[in-house]
Amino acid sequence: CNCNPEGATNLVCDQSTGRCPCRTRIRGKKCDLCPLGHFNFPRCKACNCNTAGSHSFMCNELTGECPCKDKIAGRQCDRCLWGFFNFPDCWWCDCDPLTTKDEICDNTGSCVCKDNFQGHRCQKCMTGYYGFPLCITCNCNVQGSESQSCDQASGKCTCKKNVIGWKCDMCAKDLVSFPACTKCNCDPGGTVVLPGQSKVGSASVLGQSCMCKMNVQGTLCDRCRFGYFNFSAENPSGCTTCGCSTRGTMAAMRGC
Hints:
Elements: E1 38-39, E2 45-46, E3 72-73, E4 79-80, E5 84-85, E6 91-92, E7 100-105, E8 111-113, E9 117-118, E10 124-125, E11 129-130, E12 136-137, E13 145-150, E14 157-159, E15 163-164, E16 170-171, E17 175-176, E18 182-183, E19 205-206, E20 209-210, E21 216-217, E22 223-224, E23 228-229, E24 240-241
C-alpha cells in the first residue's frame, strides 16, 4: 500500500483501489499531500496567496510560492516587482539610473536618491549644490550669504546686505572689514583715486583695507611713511621725501 504514516490513519489501503485512509483534510492516494491551499507536507501551512496579486489561492506544494500576476512578486504575491510601486496596480518607478539608488522608489513613487540629489525622480540637486546632474557644492560663505543654497544653474550665492562676490565672500565697493562690511573712512588725501571716483568722494578700497598712495601708510592712509613729510591731498604720492643727507644723519634717524 505504501501509505504515508504521517498522513494516513493506518497503513491498510483499499484492496481494490489501493487508496489509503487519510487523516482529516490530507489528500492523495498515499495520504502524502496537504489540503488545497496549503504546502509543506506533513507540517502543512496555509499558502495565504494575496487575492489581488495572485492568479490562484493555491501555491507550489513544496515551496509555497503563489502564482503571481504580471509585475507582482513575493512568495504570497503581495508586493510589486523591483522597480515598480503602488501594489497591486504596480506602476513603473521610472527612476533615473544616474541619480537614484538601484532605480527603486517608495510606495508613493518617489525615487530613492543618491547623495546630493532630491526630487520625486531625483531630478534636481539638493540644497547646497548646483549644476544638475553633476551637483557641485555651492560653498557659499557662511558669514556673507543668506543661506547655503545657491542658484541651481549658475551656482551664485545669495549675499547679505553690503556683501558681494560669487560666494558672498567680500565687501561691496567702498566697504571694509568683511563680514561686518562697514564704511572704510579712508582719508581721501592719502588714498589712490581710481577712474570713475572723485577726490571728494569715498576713498578706494583694496581687499579689506584702504589703497594708500605711494608715500602714505596707515589703516586709513592718513600719515606719511617714514622718511617722508608734508602730507597733502594735492601730492600724487601723498607725501614729500625728507631728503636728509645720508652723510649728516644717522641711518636710523633719516626721517624728518
